[in-house]
Amino acid sequence: MTRIGYAAGAFDLFHVGHLNILKHAKSQCDYLIAGVVSDEMLRETKGITPVIPLSERLEIVRNIRFVDEARAEVVPDKLDTWREVQFNVFFKGDDWRGTEMGVRLEREFAAVGVEVVYFPYTMSTSSTQLRRALDAITNTAAARQVSNA
Asked: pTM of the prediction?
């Protein structure tokens, strides 16, 4: 049986943690689909606006050698995505392991025969950290402009 894997993420401000997830995922499946969460879904589910627009994030992820297919993820329910894509392995960072959402995901996917595989979360870099650094730079530059005015 062909193992079709699915790894979903914002993949905004693409960094080594994203690369690690995709690389590890590909090592455990025959065909890897990366679900790139749409701008609208990120605003709705996480309350953030991505720095990099969806079309560019898709282009970046699509060109990673570990990814066989990249698609926009436009629905919040992973089971809806599964019904459309029919993957049999779902990959997630281990920061989800044991959480309410992670346990629910495992239960729902087990009911349809999908294995959930967790990978180590890359502690050294995160999009949240990068976003904070960009905000700090922007705020410092704005403060300088105000003081120079």
From this structure: 0.83
